[in-house]
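Thread title: Can someone regenerate the structure for this chain?

I was given the following input by a collaborator and told the matching structure tokens would be attached. They weren't. Posting the sequence so someone can regenerate them.
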Amino acid sequence: MDSPQLDDLDRRLTHAFQLDGRVPFSRLAEVLGVSDQTVARRYRRLRSTGEVRVVGVPEVTKLGRVLWLLRVRCMPDAAGAIATALARRDDTSWVSLRSGGTEIACYTSAPRQEADEGLLLGQLPGTPRVVSVTAHRMLRRFAGGPAGWPGRASALNAAQVAALTPVWEGSAVAPRLEPGDDALFAALAHDGRASLATLAAASGRSETTVRRRLEHLRATGALYFDVEVDAALLGASLSALLWLGVTPSRLDAVAARSRPIRRSRSSPPRPVRPT
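Best answer:
Regenerated them for you:
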């Protein structure tokens, strides 16, 4: 029996939310040629079943931090608990069990000056039942992050992509954080489409202030929206991480040749993160 997959409208919604996680349903309906009620009903179903979730993610490289990709080898009976503990941390953005439950892949951020003894990179090697930790500092991303993942962003045509891609003024301005932004980021990590009223209550500010902060953080690139979706729902029966040793001068060429593979058969693994 075939596994259930997202239908055409669901895929178009997923692609649209990758472009703009907070696009109004009315705008989506206009561009996709369906009713507001249909868009709202589909999204509520997708989110309530856990099939699709829109989340707000801080772009840590814009906020004076560096991004690391960790490979954590551990004993199989401890992998689930360690992955769950990692997913609860504020400095992790993606955690996934790999290699039959013997390895964890994890994105984490850290200050540029790593003097804090409480940093994850310093804690993991001493964690019981962790066999080894390998850390790779992210220097450049060819997919993922604000650019999204090709495997889930291929359902809309060029005109629809242009219509739904936001254009921000002042994108060259450096982001500046204010008190309450941490709480705002936390609320958006739970639900990137949370109402202004919900975000205002979570961050202790007015809706007007929250709207202004969202505009500033998005315009400066300090905040982007991602879509969490099970790769199997996009038709990928298997997902894998490939670690390639590449001559630096060939990075662009290898990345370009890899994109059709990701687009047709894969998507990043479903993150392990409490809701």
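The two ends are 30 Å apart (CA to CA).
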